[in-house]
Amino acid sequence: MLLEIKELSVKVKSSGVKAVNGINLSVDEGEPLLILGQSGSGKTMICRALFGLTNRYNFDVSGQIFFEGKDIMSADTKKRRKLYGSDIALIPQNPMTSFDPSCKLGNQLAETYRIHNKSSVKAAQNAVFEAMHRAGLEQCKAIWSSYPYMLSGGMLQRAAVAAAIINHPKLIIADEPTTALMQSIE
């Protein structure tokens, strides 16, 4: 089993409302899983809980999340940080707010690569260009030098896909990954 979630619940502390209530699911390697639901049904909260992105002051998260049989909810921050971006990647719902507006996009993608791979700057740049191309971005050098606000929503969505696939993860969690896309990704 690649990913297994048992009785995952996310409760809003201020109101006591359960944004996610007792979710159970499992995914084997190579198996796709699609979660459908209306707006506000908790799809994004499941993603945020999986990546430890729920603010502990505002939300109570309970249940268990296992990746390759290891409990990642109880893992320390260092182990989780190593896992996220290399073995498990996230394509966020809104790429407009996912990238640092003060940093060029190429540097951000290269950092994602270099955190998990001991590589030269040139090797990281090559990995970024390859990931950009795979995500359907053609003008890699221009995008490398651009700040996020300089790109369209569709280009930023593709850059988020590139960031997710750059380290060849075993699992990609995609939270509405095609929202801003106008052409299909190869």
* Terminal-residue CA separation: 27 Å
Average pLDDT, all residues: 90
Number of strands: 6
Approximate strand percentage: 15-25%
Provide structural commentary.
- The protein is an alpha+beta fold.
- Strand 3 and strand 4 (70-71) form a beta hairpin.
- The strands form two sheets. Strands 2-1-3-4 form a four-stranded antiparallel β-sheet.
- It has six helices and six strands.
- Helix 3 (105-116) packs across helix 4 (121-134) and helix 4 crosses helix 6 (153-165).
- The longest helix has 14 residues, at 121-134.
Ordered list of secondary-structure elements with their pairings:
Layout: E1 3-12, E2 18-27, H1 43-50, E3 59-67, E4 70-71, H2 77-83, E5 88-91, H3 105-116, H4 121-134, H5 140-144, H6 153-165, E6 171-174
Parallel strand pairs: 5-6
Antiparallel strand pairs: 1-2, 1-3, 3-4
Helix pairs in contact: 3-4, 4-6
Can you give keywords for this protein?
186 residues, alpha+beta, 4-stranded antiparallel beta sheet
Brief digest:
It contains 6 helices and 6 strands, in the order ββαββαβααααβ. The chain is α+β, with helices and mostly antiparallel strands. The longest helix is centred in the last third of the chain and has 14 residues, at about 120-135.
